[in-house]
Amino acid sequence: MTVLTDLLLGYCNARWGINLLRQGRAQRQNSQVLWGIGFIAAAIAAVLGGLSHAVGDQAPATRQKLWQGTTLATGFTSASMFASTAIASTSQPLKGRLLAGTAVKLLTYCVWTASHSKFVYVIIDYGTAMAGVVAFHGPAALRRRAASSRFILGGVFISLGAALIQMRKIAPHRHFNHNDLYHVIQIGACYLFYKGGKRLRDYDSAAADSPVTLVNEKR
User: Which residue segment(s) compose the domain that 174 sits in?
Assistant: First the structure.
C-alpha cells in the first residue's frame, strides 16, 4: 500500500507539473515554470521513495541509492518552490539575492545529504523553504486577498498536518499505515499547491497594485 500511494502521489505531481510547465512557458511566467519544476522533482521523489519501499531490506545498497535520490529530488522541490515565490513576490535587487541564496542552499544541501541520509535533514531543508514561502505569500493573502497565495498557504498547512501525522505514526488500519495516510493527505496539499501555482504571476512593480492585477489574482 505504501508503494501504491507513493506512486499515486508521483503520478499526480507529474501531471500537475507538466501542466504548469506548459502554461508557464505559454504565458512567459517564470514563477509558474519554476513551480512546475518543483512538482516534477516532487514526482521523482515520490516514485523513488515508492521503489525504496518496494526493495525493502532485500537489497540495502539499492535501497540506499534510491533514498539518496529521493532526498536530492526533495531538495530541488523546496528550492524550486522558494525560487518561484521570490520571482512572484519581489523585485531587484532583493530577488537576485534570494535566488542566489536559494542556489547556495541547494548546493549545500546536495553536498551534505550525499553523505548524511537522515530524514531530519530533509525536514530542515523543506521546512525552511516552506517558512520562506509562507513569509511572502502570507501578507499577499491577507492584504491583497491574492487567490494564488491563499491556495499555496492552504497547501503548506495541510502538508504540515500530513507531516505531523507521519511523525506521530497515526495509522487508521494495519494495512494502511502512517506513510500511506501521509501520501494521501499530501495529494490534497499538492492539489492546492497546483491551484495556487496556476495563478502565479511574475512580480511587476509597476502593476503590482493595479486593479487589473488584483482582479486576475482573485479569480
Answer: 2-218
